[in-house]
């Protein structure tokens, strides 16, 4: 029998694959993992595509599916959390201050790479943090909106932008870049990846796998990739 | 649809007009048995007339009957499709199919390969059968076009300057062949030519446009 | 080649091949209509055919999703008539690829049909060939360069199709994960460059082989064409 | 139309227009080489031209980024010679669009060049026209249907270009944010559908106008072609 | 490059061969002043020979001199480009430019529009100047092709069956014009024809292939 079909946000790729490997080693059929942008996956679910689990990069799309009554009742949970950081090329200075004009001026020295602050989750968190820290008005005109957080990372890696705002999990995976600063808790809404079983789920292992992911063992695996507890 | 083939009836009964650009071309004539030569200055509308009889150009008004069969009648809204008219047409330009070998050009309209050899020999194109049309000389292409029209087993022939650009010997051979077709099979035949000698020899009747 | 990679490549070839082969007759029919037809709404049809080119692929994928969703108009028909759904299936990926390839294929074939000398078709008619035989033996072979170009373009485009596919049928390994989707997945991973290079290299190799095949076919054909 | 929308539309037209106009001569030269040239490595050139079609757009964008990054080979040259960078600039978006449109344009033009009867070029030569005049007065006009099709395809493709653009030059409002990028942003959020429809409608309207223009031009031209 | 124009020197000095498919075509002849007729069966290589003299078909071996000017010499690796040979060529098929009006076809190789009117009138194509080539009849197209070659102000003429598919009256007019060119401008001229009468009248010299 096939494993459950899991639709997951692209940034979960390594962590979730590792968890699926562990699950398989326990003698289960390997779950089928489909990674794409949360928005694309949520629309597929909303259209009635038959899948078992959905892991979103933000609450908004999960809320949308909940409103459409597509989630199995009582199965929504927060899977993992993440932190937002500023990455820098190897030559750039670390952030002197994580507040106000000083932060703004340092970040605005060149183009600032981040995912679209009006659309993509990591971009929205970044915008909230910069606003909260008082740096947004200075930084806003210098922002280049990447298609995804990984694309923002690539811009910094290539030297196209000195700084970028990305997730901690992404920053850790890039050997070329340094973490120039971590946004404090509370400077932006908590970053959580919600998980839920879908009403359309047919695979009887789906619920078991969902439980495995939120179990201590699952959390520990994903923690290895830099995800925090939700 | 009245009237048998050949026999005593008229071969071509034509009365058509068609607009071509600013001018109107057309002709009215009845031709008896055998072959008829169409004679007239360049631009008189000879080719246009042949196209109307072949079904490739729709006349604006009039009628076309061949061997008693109505092929076109504007008033009665009859317009037999070109493929059902069973005309053997030699166009003014060869119009060989460039993607088919000479052999397959010749056989395109033929029911069987029977007769291919004889006609190819008479037209002196037997050595060209496996060539592509684009490698033929002007006269060679024209002879292939004549062969193709004859092999189609037509009910009547429409020949637009079939002997142009042929040398004496081959012209003679081709003319003999056309005469033989005319005399043996008694196919109605309409031939455009500018050569009075040719007209004299081939045409029982000459129509001037 | 690992098993996983083999699956991806086989799936890409399957989807590309099915999309190209399936679209070719449709593209030919449309190209024919646009080249030769005279009917009201011709420009509109022309515009419709071009849409997948103009609209970003994600939007095309999204529209396909709406149409083929279980409650969507086409999804309902498929379900009722054949009892199947193409969501999350390789067939859906083929539909997405076909959709994106269509405008390119129609244009190529149309250019070639417009290049066919209609006097040759007339000659065929007088030789007793009806419209269909004329089409099959004269028009189609003479338009072959365009058909070959269309097949080549369609296959290459299918091989590179990403946006509409991932939006429409997701990125399901073994079912809809073609080379571009696998490349996307690798690109999402910092340090995945090596995989990207490898997968892109395979794509390029496949398309080069297809290209060479179509060129050689076209060359054989080309020699015969083009002089009355 | 809001100011923002107007900026997006103007930018899309600018980028599409510049990409198409800039690529046309390049595409013609390549098409010419591929149609008429005989040189070693012709198949390789053919393959290279097709690459942007086969490789997913994000990869093309990524390669452009590597090439034009400040430390990249082309980026360094541009910086040294002209003191400019096209990163995050509309010029970069035009480069991305041009790159993606190139294979389509080359194919269309090539098909038309292959359809030009070389006996007419011979006739022009005997009438005293050198290769260039022959090209400009005979080959080029006779290949015009392909050139028009190429312009149309290129413009439409540019108008729909998303993946390579956003990867290469990001989404900078007022500089690189074209219609597809705006559409993508709208698609990312629940409830963005209304904006998507509006923007897609504008794309479609623009391309329909371009299409009609090219058809009418082509029709005028078409009437003259095609019979010796 | 030795030898003036016309005068006492040879007009055409030709000695060429070229492979065409399996066969080899070619000819060796010297022609004196005035016009020369090329006579020979279909497929003999007349058109090929004209193409070699015009510079459109590269001979495998040999030499071509016209009015003393070396146009081709395989041994000396001379091969003057077609546009520099100043030949006025009438091809066996009209080869009119389909995207140019008849007027612009006629003027394509002309230095000025001077002479257009006279030639158009003589060839009876003055009424066709604003038409597109595809609307011309066979004979009309051929006359335009003749006019185009003459208006190019050539140093010599190569005419491949120029009078085919012309009716008597127009053939006569065209022949008179060619004779006039021959006699007044003394251009060397090579004419392919299958008509012995035409050959007799036009050719001071007849070359059989
Ligand atoms: N599409 C068109 N538009 C305008 N005039 C046309 C068109 N087609 C043909 N004609 C004119 O119609 C007339 C008749 O043409 P047709 O080809 O029938 O002449 P023809 O008698 O065969 O002449 P030829 O002996 O030169 O072949 C010609 O004057 C030609 O210019
Ligand atoms: N590409 C080719 N391949 C093979 N044979 C060829 C090719 N081109 C020409 N030929 C042959 O070369 C010969 C000479 O052709 P050419 O056109 O010069 O003849 P021609 O004397 O002009 O004949 P015509 O009076 O029929 O026009 C012909 O037999 C022809 O079939
Ligand atoms: Mg005629
Ligand atoms: Mg010849």
TrEMBL record, chains B, E:
Annotated protein name in UniProt: Maltose/maltodextrin import ATP-binding protein MalK
Organism domain of life: Bacteria
Top class in the EC scheme: hydrolase
Single GO MF annotation: ATP hydrolysis activity
A Pfam family annotated for this UniProt entry: ABC_tran
Domain called ABC transporter: residue spans: 9-209
Annotated TM spans: none
EC id: 3.6.3.19
UniProtKB/TrEMBL annotation, chains C, D:
SUPFAM superfamilies, A to Z: MetI-like (SSF161098)
Record has Aminoacyl-tRNA synthetase as a keyword: no
Entries under InterPro entries matching the protein: MetI-like, MetI-like_sf, ModB_ABC
Any one of the GO CC terms: plasma membrane
GO molecular function: molybdate ion transmembrane transporter activity
Pfam families linked to this entry: BPD_transp_1
Localization (cell): Cell inner membrane; Cell membrane
Annotated ABC transmembrane type-1 domain residues: 9-217
Family in the record: Belongs to the binding-protein-dependent transport system permease family. CysTW subfamily.
Name of the protein in question: Molybdenum transport system permease
Gene: modB
